[in-house]
Specification:
By secondary structure, the chain is α+β, with helices and mostly antiparallel strands. It has helices spanning 9-15, 24-39, 46-52, 61-69, 75-90, 169-183, 245-251, 278-281, 313-321, 324-337, 347-372, 377-384, 396-411, 422-439, and strands at 97-107, 117-120, 130-143, 152-161, 189-193, 209-214, 221-222, 241-243, 255-261, 264-276, 285-292, 302-306. The longest helix has 26 residues, at 347-372.
């Protein structure tokens, strides 16, 4: 039998919670490739994972490729198991789950790459804002880690979007939200998204799920439907027209409020209205929160619409600001782990490699939180790089670097990481001998 990679015991303890998503040999391959992607400092290709796992002389490269082409595992089921792992270890008991949804483009070339085409690229530097590649709609759990002052978004679901072929981005997001809600039916879930995520598919989410998104400038709002008159005919579904957010802001009464967002607490001015966004969410009652950064300004700087009718307006602004963490996750996953660099072309592999890479991001953060963090990590980084004078908290790059050092150390341990030491064996043998003597 071909030898497997040396996976640190602490990382294997984290991965062990996902064992039920794979067959026995499949889990062995999964653990090796996760270790390889994290340890690899080159391109995040499948052969790069093999190189990072130090298995190029022991495995055929087909064994690594077959994990993504033919192995029996499902990315959605794996993401669901990963979400339970995140909730169990990083979310307080009974606390609501905050979920960010967004899409991102992984640039690819070639006519035969499944799902690749010219489409919107939020990170494009050109005037047109488009790029060629594969677009994935991603769902991530936003968590607060005890050693960080900023929220972190951990991907737990990702699905390929094909423009004009199959479901839209909003429909994919709605499907993943409903699946997550079914997996965590006992938890309240707050979903946050940018202005692109609204419409018919998000009208009828489960009762324990709320949606908060940015309100487009062209949205038209209406008063709630008046009570039935008792006359013949269908009762009215909406009230009088309130207008666009700009028209609403012209007559709204703004009050000063203290809001915490992006690591700062500052005073802003808020105005709230309970109404209907009939064109998008139909007859679902919503709240619109208008924000001004300066009371001397006219109009508004931010307009939010939410189906959460009980949360404070300041909490909604804070919740929406936490959405930015998913953008940070996309940038770090690309730069640190090489997510999206796999050179695959077939449908199955394209649909699996990106979620796999994003899940490795989540696994790295979980491992660091449970086994890798030390209060002196930031100080040690400042000692190595004294120009980071204001660095007070570890970044994702520090988490990856520490896990890589742990992986390298495990490879050079004189014994297998999972085997007992000689001292431990002698201690057990002495205990047995003592127990036998007492019985005699």
């Amino acid at each position: 039998m071909l030898p497997d990679a040396t996976v640190p015991a602490s990382l294997l303890a984290v991965l062990g919670s996902l064992r039920g998503c794979f067959t026995y040999p499949g889990f062995s391959n999964f653990a090796a490739l996760v270790t390889g992607l994290i340890a690899n400092t080159g391109r995040g290709t499948v052969t790069g994972m093999l190189l990072g796992a130090n298995l190029t002389r022991h495995w055929s490269h087909d064994r690594a490729h077959s994990f993504f082409t033919r192995a029996s595992w499902d990315a959605q089921t794996l993401g669901a198991a990963l979400s339970h792992l995140v909730v169990r270890h990083l979310v307080p008991d009974g606390a609501p789950l905050t979920v960010a949804v967004d899409d991102t483009l992984f640039k690819r070339r070639g006519k035969k790459v499944f799902g690749a085409c010219w489409q919107h690229d939020g990170s494009a530097t050109g005037r047109d804002g488009i790029g060629h590649g594969t677009c994935f709609v991603v769902l991530g759990l936003i968590v607060d880690l005890p050693f960080l002052t900023r929220p972190v978004c951990l991907p737990i679901a990702a699905r390929l979007h094909r423009p004009k072929q199959g479901p839209t981005k909003v429909e994919l997001a709605a499907s993943m939200i409903r699946f997550l809600a079914a997996c965590h039916y006992a938890r309240h879930i707050d979903v946050v998204a940018d202005a692109a995520y609204h419409g018919r598919a998000l009208r009828d989410l489960p009762g324990h799920v709320t949606l908060t998104t940015r309100l487009p400038a062209s949205a038209v709002l209406y008063n709630l439907a008046p009570p039935p008159t008792g006359r013949r005919g269908r009762p009215r579904l909406k009230g009088e027209r309130l207008g666009t957010p700009a028209e609403l802001a012209a007559t709204a009464a703004f009050t000063p409020q203290a809001v915490t967002r992006y690591g700062r607490t500052e005073q802003v001015y808020l105005a709230e209205t309970v109404c209907l966004w009939y064109g998008s969410l139909y007859t679902r009652t919503v709240r619109v929160v208008l924000l001004r950064d300066d009371d001397t300004d006219t109009g508004y700087d931010l307009a939010l619409v939410t189906t959460d009718l009980t949360a404070k307006g300041t909490d909604l602004v804070t919740r929406y600001a936490a959405r930015w963490s998913i953008e940070v996750t996309f940038a770090e996953a690309r730069e640190m782990l090489g997510v999206g660099q796999a050179r695959s072309r077939t449908r199955t592999v394209v649909e699996r490699t990106v979620p796999f890479g994003l899940y490795c991001y989540t696994l790295t953060v979980i491992w660091y939180t449970l086994h890798g963090h030390h209060p002196q990590d930031a100080a040690e980084h400042r000692a190595r790089a004294p120009w980071y004078t204001t660095k007070a908290h570890p970044a994702f790059s520090d988490m990856v670097a520490k896990l890589r050092r742990t992986i390298i150390a495990a490879r050079f341990m004189p014994i297998d990481a999972g085997q007992p030491t000689d001292t431990e064996i002698r201690t057990v043998q002495e205990a047995w001998a003592t127990a036998s003597a007492d019985l005699a």
